[in-house]
Specification:
It is a single chain. This protein is of the alpha+beta class. About 20% of the residues lie in helices and about 40% in strands. It is built from 14 helices and 33 strands. It has a 16-stranded antiparallel barrel. Strands 1, 2, 6, 7, 9, 10, 11 and 12 form an 8-stranded mixed sheet that branches. A 3-stranded mixed sheet has the order 13-15-14, covered by helices on one side. α2 runs antiparallel to α4. It is elongated. The N terminus is likely disordered.
Length: about 750
């Protein structure tokens, strides 16, 4: 190791001596989002012409490209990584459903993507549309988790990133610490991304104050500056046609004015390159390669001036070897073992829960994917706004520091949902859902959550959830629920007959989260309510029940509606003692409820995929065990899209149910529509099922077979589907769903 350090030092001294005999060249790389490929195009020409770079300062995308070039990567290396990274995924901080805890997966109906919180008398919202979590993860995935630097002059090429102090509207020159954080802060578009917290400041995109940092490169010691400007020019009068173009023009004022001031600092020996990228989008990363081409073309237009900066092939090879040795030394440092893990926890979540989610061991050499998976594991608890990391040298290893920031719009949160399902004829269901969750009520993260559902079948619930251990393994739940349900009855009448059931239920449960994706729970329940139908009953049937329940659930599906992998399994067993005030029927006689019942419900949904082809299986089973000649007050429902397609939603009712479906989905995005960002499915289903009112009547020969064909997608507003279903019994229907759990 000592021989290696001596050789590296010797090479560096030789490089410095050679560099001192020639003018020092600095790069000023401007901001411009996805147009930043133009920077790489220019760098490719510099490399081809044996032109060394001694200093780099960058803003926004210029800070990202410049940072990686300062690390010692070649233009081709950076281009390969940039083009293979799905940067468009940085436009969302949504946690993939399969990673969420089981408890949070049960809230699929809250599909309106609004983040609104409450504290005291204040309504709060996030400080940006995005929090930057996925964007920073993409940077780590592309270039690794790099240790902190005491000075960015230690990099193979000295480097500076430019950010803006949001409170002071002044430039912040980032010259030490975390390189990835510096890139992130410099490219942090205000209002779109939440500000980056650093040394007591809130940092946003440096383009606001200095979009082309020529002055910084000169201050670093550059004799000659090559400035690359990829900013948007101001629009002409005939282009300012609507609100969005006017707002864009106001934004351009900020960057163009700073760029204009910086260009005045250029001298005759400096060089300004302005690639023709005005026609390219700043947010569409598919244009990145075109930007590379435009950068090369623009550099070629200045080739005579550039060649005056060339050095001999042997000198350039020595320059490259020095950069490569320094890059190797940095990457070797990334392979050191982790000797300490530190949590800078800005949240109320207990450190033991966070450490359990991390699942990292001190003393091991961790791969990039292990560290990134650990970050994902914490973030997917959905308790935090942002999870950052830094790596600090410590003895023979590295200290891994997690910067954990709580949601700035908490600690209490509102959620909203919208659902609509219709068959375009006589059935239409609309649901508006509201929820309010108060968090951090107990030491280990207790919460009180209330939900209100308005629509055809209104519902109200309130739950007090209390984890009983630091790692939230054991929990207690106290729940009150009100529901208004409509039963559809088989009838010879031409008009549909329904019974309305209003019920109030109280449950007290104790459970165990045996994994992030599964739980076991048991408890006691009490329910009371009434049934009403003026056509069938002489008066309302009132009832009350009490008993107990046992539930086992597991869910790691990637989508509740259009899954392509994972499984959901729920088994519920309920023992009830029913006390029913039976009443007279209009047709004569008495209603025949009042049974001690044992109810078994089993739900299964599983999926796997082969490329763009997904295969889904679905099973729903309900069985009510009662005494001979008795009937229970509880029923199961069947009917609707992918629930015996062809029938109206919840058209069939009875205490006993069996349903199964095999579903095939083809993702058109992977085939015919590759450029779309959302999945777009063409689906086919084969289904069979029925319900029975009496246990003695259950007969598999009575199964009704049906099928459907549909188009569907998963959006930020939840699933959208348009389908057609038909059954062997002649039932057929067109379905449209928006944000509804199928």
């Amino acid at each position: 190791m000592q021989k290696y350090l001596f050789s590296l030092t010797l090479c560096f001294v030789i490089f410095i001596d050679a560099a001192s005999a020639r003018p020092k060249i600095g790069l000023a790389l401007g901001g411009g989002g996805a147009k930043g490929g133009a920077h790489l195009g220019v760098l490719k020409v510099l490399e081809r012409e044996n032109i060394p770079v001694d200093f780099i300062a960058g803003t926004s995308i210029g800070a990202i490209i410049g940072g990686f070039y300062a690390l010692g990567y070649s233009a081709d290396d950076i281009a390969e990584k940039m083009l293979s990274t799905p940067w468009e995924e940085g436009y969302s901080d949504t946690i993939p459903r399969q990673l969420l805890p089981y408890r949070l997966k049960q809230r699929d109906q809250f599909n309106v993507p609004l983040n609104i919180g409450h504290e005291g008398y204040q309504i709060k919202t996030p400080s940006g549309l995005l929090y930057g979590q996925n964007a920073s993860m993409l940077l780590r995935d592309a270039f690794g988790n790099i240790a902190n630097f005491s000075d960015f002059d230690e990099l193979p090429i000295p480097y500076r990133a430019i950010a803006t102090d949001l409170s002071a509207n002044e430039a912040v020159i980032l010259n030490k610490g975390s390189l990835l954080m510096s890139m992130h802060a410099s490219a942090n578009v205000p209002g779109v991304l939440a500000p980056v917290k650093h040394d007591g400041r809130l940092l946003v995109d440096g383009g606001i104050v200095n979009n082309l940092p020529i002055d910084i490169v000169k201050q670093m010691g550059a004799d000659i500056v090559i400035a690359i400007d990829i900013g948007d020019p101001l629009m002409q009068t005939d282009q300012l046609l609507d609100t969005f173009t006017i707002l864009g023009q106001l934004s351009s004022f900020l960057t163009s004015s700073s760029t204009f001031r910086q260009k005045k600092l250029l001298s005759e020996k400096d060089l300004l390159i302005e690639p023709r990228v005005a026609h390219l989008s700043t947010t569409d990363w598919s244009v990145f390669s075109e930007g590379i081409d435009e950068g090369e073309k623009s550099a070629e237009e200045h080739i005579e001036q550039l060649r005056r900066l060339s050095i001999s092939p042997s000198e350039y090879q020595d320059y490259l070897k020095t950069k490569q040795h320094a890059n190797i030394a940095i990457r070797q440092g990334m392979a050191k073992p982790i000797v300490e893990i530190e949590l800078k926890n800005d949240s109320k979540v207990h450190p033991e829960l966070i450490l359990e989610a991390l699942d990292l061991k001190v003393g091991e050499t961790l791969t990039e994917s292990q560290i990134n998976d650990a970050i994902d594991s914490i973030y997917s608890l959905d308790e935090f706004q942002y999870i950052g990391i830094s790596l600090e040298e410590k003895g023979t290893g590295r200290k891994l520091v997690f910067d954990i920031q709580e949601k700035s719009w908490g600690p209490n949160f509102f959620e909203f949902g919208l659902g609509w399902e219709t068959n375009f004829t006589d059935e239409s269901f609309i649901d508006l859902d509201f929820a309010y969750t108060a968090t951090n009520l107990t030491e280990y993260g207790g919460e009180w959550r209330s939900q209100l559902e308005l629509g055809n079948e209104p519902a109200l619930s309130s739950e007090y959830y209390v984890p009983l251990t630091r790692k939230r393994g054991i929990f207690s739940r106290s729940i009150y629920e009100f529901e208004s349900i409509n039963w559809a009855l088989d009838s010879t009448s031409a008009l549909p007959i329904t019974i309305k059931q209003n019920l109030h239920q109280i449950r007290q449960g104790l459970g165990w989260n045996f994994s992030r994706y599964g739980l076991v729970e048991f408890g006691l329940l009490v329910e009371f309510g009434f049934l009403e139908n003026d056509f069938l009953l002489t008066k309302d049937i009132s009832y009350n029940t009490h008993g107990g329940y046992l539930a086992f659930g597991y869910d790691d599906l990637d989508s509740a509606v259009f899954p392509t992998q994972g499984k959901r399994f729920l088994v519920t067993l309920k023992k009830r003692y029913e006390d029913v005030n039976n009443v007279g029927l209009v047709s004569g006689g008495l209603s025949n409820f009042d049974a001690d019942s044992l109810q078994l419900d089993v739900e299964w949904k599983g999926a796997f995929n082969l490329g763009s082809h997904a295969f889904v299986s679905k099973v729903d089973f309900a069985r009510m065990y009662v005494g001979d000649g008795k009937e229970s007050i509880k029923i199961a429902q069947l009917g609707g899209f992918l629930n015996l397609s062809g029938y109206n939603p919840r058209a069939l009712t009875g205490p006993h149910k069996l349903f199964g479906a095999l579903i095939y989905q083809y993702n058109l995005r992977g085939g015919l529509f590759k450029k779309t960002q959302l999945p777009f499915y063409l689906g086919l289903s084969a289904e069979a099922g029925n319900v029975w009112s009496q246990e003695s009547a259950i007969d598999l020969n009575d199964l009704i077979f049906s099928s459907s064909i549909y188009l569907g997608t998963d959006t930020r507003m939840g699933p959208i589907a348009l389908g057609y279903g038909f059954s062997e019994a002649g039932e057929k229907s067109i379905y449209f769903y928006l944000g509804y759990k199928l």
